Amino acid sequence: MNIPNHVGFILDGNGRWAQAQGLTRSEGHQAGFESLRKLSKYIFDKGVKVLSVYAFSTENFKRSKQEVDFLMNLFVKKFQEYGKDLNKENVKVVFSGIRKAPLPMEVIKIIGEVEALTINNTKGTLNICINYDGQWEIVDATKKIIADISEGKLKQEDINKELFNRYLYQELPPIDLLIRTSGENRLSGFMLWQASYAEFYFPSIHFPAFTEKDFDEALAIYNNRDRRFGGINEKKTNC
Ligand code: IPE
Ligand code: IPE
Ligand code: MG
């Protein structure tokens, strides 16, 4: 079994899952959070080194104040405990996204605390995308590069793909397998740079119902993909 080094996961369908169960959207988010806790442990135990999850996009601030407040409070209430669990599992936690208002100060504070607590861990890296948009990530990296050029720290001719990657919110390897639950076949701004050569998998199941078994299924599908990276698979071709 070939285990992907970096898995990207767009955690979608909490609302629809709740609706189908006759529950509120808030209960759907709560169930989604519990699902993430279980699944992240399983994914690192499988040998995945980096797991990036899309938890809240810049666009998600368009939702009702009630829903946004619920999600932010859920993070504040639950994340310190989850961070401690991840720390015990030797997982490093990093965050990607814009760290300023409208993201609440309390959320920004916890982000810093969890990153500091887990900074030396080595089993794997959990990258959590909050107040995140992949186009903004590229714009922000560009601004940092321009600032370094004008301060004389960097020369324009030294810019290449590897260098650009170091200026993103987090310096991460490329995504190998990208999963989006709930049957939507789109990225909604998720990790545009890192997903450049990812294998995509779009199961119809909603995120709170996605189990370890479903992840095994995703791995099996990934193992059947022919990743050519623009080349030719010599074993499968008659020249
Ligand atoms: C994903 O579930 C979680 C967040 C975007 C915060 P949704 O809330 O998007 O669930 P659906 O798509 O409405 O079912
Ligand atoms: C994408 O899901 C963002 C997250 C899962 C956090 P959305 O539910 O917000 O995306 P759209 O609106 O279906 O594109
Ligand atoms: Mg959605």
Describe it.
The longest helix has 24 residues, at 65-88. Helix 4 (105-118) links the parallel strand 3 and strand 4 (124-132). The protein starts with 5 loop residues before the first strand and ends in a 16-residue tail after the last helix. The protein has a six-stranded parallel β-sheet, sandwiched between helices. The radius of gyration is 19 Å and the shape is globular. Helix 2 packs parallel to helix 3 (65-88) and helix 3 runs parallel beside helix 4 (105-118). The chain has helices at 14-20, 25-45, 65-88, 105-118, 134-150, 161-166, 212-223; strands at 6-10, 50-57, 91-96, 124-132, 177-180, 199-201. 42% of the residues lie in helices and 15% in strands. It binds 3-methylbut-3-enyl trihydrogen diphosphate (2 copies) and magnesium ion. One 3-methylbut-3-enyl trihydrogen diphosphate is lined by residues 10-12, 54-57, 60, 184, 186, 188.
What's this model, at a glance?
The protein has 239 residues and is α/β, with parallel strands linked by helices. The protein contains seven helices and six strands, in the order βααβαβαβααββα. It binds 3-methylbut-3-enyl trihydrogen diphosphate (2 copies) and magnesium ion (MG).
